[in-house]
C-alpha cells in the first residue's frame, strides 16, 4: 500500500512556483526549494520526481493560473465588468482585458517578476532547449488566443487594420513578451500603461480608457 502524503502537495507546488518565478530555474538550489516547500528530499523525489520535473509542473501551474482562464474563445461573459456597456468590440476588449488582468492589475512585487514562461524561454534557450520549448508551447496558446480575437473582430469589421489576424496576433504576442521584460527592468506602472495604450492604438484597438 502506498504511503499517504504527509504534506499539502498543492501548497508545496505553489511555493516552488513562486521561488522559480522570483529567481529562475538555475538559481534555485535544491536546499532552498526544500526549505520553501517545507518538505524533505525524499518527499520531493517521491511526489515530484526531481527538480526538473518539479519545474515543469510549476510552468504548467503558472499557465493554468495566469493565462488559461483568459485563453478561451472570446465571449462577452468573459470580459471584466469595467469594460461592460461601451461600444468597443468584445473581441478587442478581450485583448485589452488580458493585459490589464495579467499585467497592470497585479501587485507591484508580482508584476516585477515578469512572466515565468517568458523568463524560462529566455533563460533556458541555450541551457535546456526542451524546457525552453515547453514554456514556448504554453505561450503559443496565448498567441492563438490573440489570433482568434483578431479573427473574430475582422469578421465583424470591427478593426481598421489591413494585416491578417495571424500577423496581428503575432505582433500582440511580441508586445506581451516585451512588456514582461519591461516589468523585470522595473518600468513604472505609468510607463507600462503608456506603452500598452500606444501599442493597442497602433494595432487598431481603441482602448476602453478612451471612452467618454
UniProtKB/TrEMBL annotation:
Segments of the chain annotated as binding DNA: 29-48
Annotated SUPFAM superfamilies: Homeodomain-like, Tetracyclin repressor-like, C-terminal domain
Coiled coil: none
Stretch forming the signal peptide: none
Keywords (A to Z) from UniProt: DNA-binding, Transcription, Transcription regulation
PROSITE patterns (UniProt xref): HTH_TETR_2 (PS50977)
Transcription regulation among keywords: yes
GO MF assignments: DNA binding
Domain HTH tetR-type: 6-66
Name of this protein: TetR/AcrR family transcriptional repressor of nem operon
